[in-house]
Write a structure and sequence with these properties.
With 405 residues, this protein is α/β, with parallel strands linked by helices. It contains 13 helices and 21 strands. The strands form five sheets. A seven-stranded mixed sheet has the order 3-2-7-18-19-20-21, covered by helices on one side. A five-stranded parallel sheet has the order 13-14-15-16-17, with helices on both faces. A four-stranded mixed sheet has the order 5-4-1-6, with no helix packed on it. The structure holds zinc ion (ZN).
């Protein structure tokens, strides 16, 4: 069993919100000991110099599409995401997924929650299992489920009616989905509460959590009524609905990046001028943080997500989302962001007994960053070391042993 000692750094306790000097001993895939400097067992273990660094639990991005590039306004040959989704071969889609896993590691991401679309997430997960590539843990939804002609129908699994919903959920589980994603709205709600309830019941019966793309008032009301476990994007919600979200401990994954980054970068990456102007107008008239701020003040818990793979949202870009969460006051302080990236993410997936904190016995998914993120959030962008399952994959800021033949 390999042992490694991260020595001379600070460990951030994400629950307490405190930072203390400590060494971290990693044995195999586990955190074996967190101790005062010099006091760790096996102090003759190979050392990783963590002087001046802050050691945190590995970060999670809870809303990604691993098969989408997120490179430009499109990343596809003809101009919009729909064309990327329709025209990419399975091979290209898989290569994008592999590249995105690599990029994610560089940003300190040790777990990705894929929200589905095409099939490449299944292949990426299998490639990780076989050791063909290295990357963050993958928690995948298979194909997202939407009504016939519903939002992003061109890359998901269309399903209608109560029986159709049950069949579509069973199909994703059969393929290997870890969780289920339903598209609940585009400009209007796209499923009845009965259909949503059938999907939620079926997912839960099969031991899976279920989440929904829900960004408008009526859809958020519907998925809460149907018994969903979490909400993607979020948006305006009535007070009684917000109360139920808090009561039922549903977690919301805000994704400010597409709007913010597309507004900022889209025009230089092929975004049509009219679309860019509309995005700017929307952001001015309707700042993206306002509904989230209301939820947060009512006690709703958030987990971190960027919608990586969307146009202009690359998989190694998390600082844009972090800056926007603070700027638009969706969160109050840096510690909120740190919790979103770590413990809240583990709670969202349901693996907080194994991940999400730097504690003895937990899996060694760790990130060491230069500086103190509680004092200056930009420290989260200075990733020096990343461990996944005890494997030291980013060393001194460089990807290492990314592939292992
Ligand atoms: Zn998405």
């Amino acid at each position: 069993m390999t042992t490694q000692l991260l020595a001379g750094g600070w460990v951030l306790d994400v629950r307490a919100g405190t930072r203390r000097r400590a060494d971290v001993l990693v044995e195999g895939s586990r955190i074996a000991h967190v101790a005062a400097p010099g006091a760790a067992r096996a102090s003759d273990a190979p050392r990783v110099d963590a002087a001046g660094l802050t050691i945190l639990p590995g970060f999670s991005n809870n809303h990604v599409h691993v098969g989408w590039s997120g490179m430009g306004w499109d990343g596809g040959p003809t101009g919009i995401l729909r064309d990327e989704a329709l025209n990419d071969s399975d091979g290209i889609n898989g290569i994008k997924a592999a590249a995105n896993l690599r990029k994610s590691l560089r940003a300190g991401l040790t777990a990705l929650r894929d929200l589905g679309m095409r099939m490449s997430a299944f292949d990426a997960k299998e490639a990780l299992r076989r050791g063909l590539i290295k990357g963050p843990r993958l928690f995948i939804a298979g194909r997202a489920i939407m009504c016939t002609g519903g939002h992003t129908w061109w890359c998901g699994r269309e399903a209608d009616g109560v029986d159709g919903m049950r069949a579509a959920v069973r199909e994703q589980v059969k393929l290997g989905a870890d969780h289920i994603k339903i598209i609940a709205n585009e400009r209007t709600p796209q499923y009845s509460v009965e259909e949503l309830r059938a999907a939620a019941d079926e997912a839960h019966r099969l031991g899976r959590r279920i989440t929904a793309h829900a960004s408008i008032r009526e859809a958020i009301r519907n998925v809460v009524a149907a018994g969903f476990d979490s909400i993607e994007h979020g948006g305006p919600a009535d007070d009684d609905v917000i109360e139920q979200i808090v009561e039922r401990k549903m977690i919301v994954v805000p994704t400010l990046s597409p709007r913010v980054l597309q507004t900022e970068r889209g025009p230089s990456r092929g975004m049509p001028a009219g679309v860019a102007a509309a995005r700017r107008k929307q952001t001015l008239e309707n700042p993206p943080g306002a509904p989230l701020r209301r939820m947060r003040e009512a006690g709703v818990k958030f987990a971190f997500g960027t919608d990586a793979g969307s146009p202009c949202v690359p998989h190694d870009e998390i600082m844009g989302e972090i800056a926007a969460l603070l700027e638009y006051e969706a969160v109050a302080e840096p510690l909120d962001v740190v919790r979103m990236l770590t413990i809240n993410s583990a709670e969202l997936r349901g693996d907080d007994d194994r991940l999400g904190t730097v504690e003895e016995g937990k899996l060694a998914d760790l990130v060491a960053v230069d500086g103190d993120p509680l004092a200056d959030i930009r420290a989260l962008g200075n990733v020096r070391h990343v461990f996944v399952d005890g494997e030291h994959l980013v060393r001194d800021g460089e990807l290492h042993d990314w592939y292992d033949w």
